[in-house]
Design goal:
329 residues; alpha/beta; Purple Acid Phosphatase, chain A, domain 2; 6-stranded mixed β-sheet; globular
């Protein structure tokens, strides 16, 4: 029975992917977006692509990458974790192949997600080999040489602080070493930024944000203590933008108000703006959210504000009911 269900799921996904691709031809805005005057940085933000070598998954990913390259044309591409479905070499090869073929964005940031640490659903997860594969392929994609799942980048004069899980759990574990590193990385970023926003990218959101609770639902950090330590460090600095994925909660809209507590963008503490990205591969688990394949956010950074425009990259259209301005102090 399970095999029959699996076949039906795959068949339904293939049909949906084909219909979506045809829809992008019929309804997509195929003209290039105009870079706004005064924009200092533009970024295409997605998460949870869950790539494998399956044909239908490539069909879902390809038009989105082409939309980013030909119409959005951002300074930066971000995939905030779960780039692969189970982190094995075949999955990473497929993910890299798609970016190599269809993404022309110069700057890329790829973070580690829980799915990227699993390697094989049918065997015991091993973090070490999965971490090594992530570093191998993420470094190739980004053109870097990092030896850790947490690191920093400077792009267009803005600091990006990248965090990553340190075991194979669904909820995120961060070590005391990573927390100590984060203290130094944020201090360095604040000194370099001179009042500009600091972007922190991590696969999992904070506990008790975006409509989730604590670690019991496995959507945030593994312990409230770890979560609080990270949040306390970030909240010391003004204009911190925390970008996550993982929840598959979609983009909020009028319909998603039916989901108590759910919001895509919210204030955390005094200085943190937390953005939880939708799942590119599967859409949304929240009723009324943007639940179609291919959603993400186009982020545009100005001197005095950040604009967040929801976009379905697969269809090549902006989602007009999702536009948020984050003022900078």
């Amino acid at each position: 029975m399970e095999k029959v269900l699996d076949v039906l799921k795959i068949a339904a996904s293939i049909v949906t992917a084909v219909c979506t691709a045809l829809g992008s031809l019929a309804f997509g805005n195929h003209s290039a977006l105009t870079r706004p005057a005064g924009a200092r940085l533009t970024a295409a933000l997605i998460a949870d692509t869950h790539m494998t070598d399956a044909f239908y998954r490539k069909m879902i990913f390809k038009p989105g990458l082409k939309d980013m390259s030909k119409r959005v044309n951002p300074d930066l591409f971000v995939c905030a974790g779960d780039s692969t479905d189970n982190g094995n070499e075949t999955n990473w090869e497929a993910f890299k192949e798609m970016l190599d073929k269809y993404l022309t964005v110069e700057n890329k940031i790829i973070t580690l997600g829980n799915h990227d640490t699993w390697m094989d659903y049918d065997s015991e997860h091993e973090y070490g080999p999965a971490k090594d594969l992530y570093l191998k392929y993420a470094n190739q994609i980004m053109g870097t040489g990092f030896d850790s799942v947490y690191f920093t980048r400077e792009i267009n004069g803005y600091s990006f602080v990248i965090m990553g899980p340190e075991d194979t759990r669904v909820s995120e574990t961060v070590s005391e070493q990573q927390i100590a590193w984060l203290r130094g990385a944020m201090a360095d970023a604040a000194e370099k930024s001179q009042g500009k926003p600091i972007f922190v990218i991590n696969h999992n959101p904070f506990n008790f944000t975006h409509g989730i609770g604590d670690n019991e639902n496995r959507n945030g950090f593994n312990s409230n203590e770890e979560c609080d330590a990270v949040r306390e460090i970030l909240d010391r600095y003004e204009n911190v933008i925390y970008i996550s994925g993982h929840t598959h909660f979609g983009l909020d809209s009028e319909g998603s108000k039916e989901a108590p507590g759910f919001t895509t963008v919210e204030k955390v503490g005094n200085n943190i703006t937390s953005i939880n990205l939708p799942c590119y591969e599967y859409g949304s688990f929240v009723t009324g959210g943007d639940d179609f394949f291919g959603p993400g956010i186009v982020m545009t950074v100005f001197d005095d504000r950040i604009e967040l425009q929801g976009r379905n990259f697969l269809l090549g259209v902006n989602l007009e009911d999702f536009f948020i301005t984050v003022p900078l102090t």
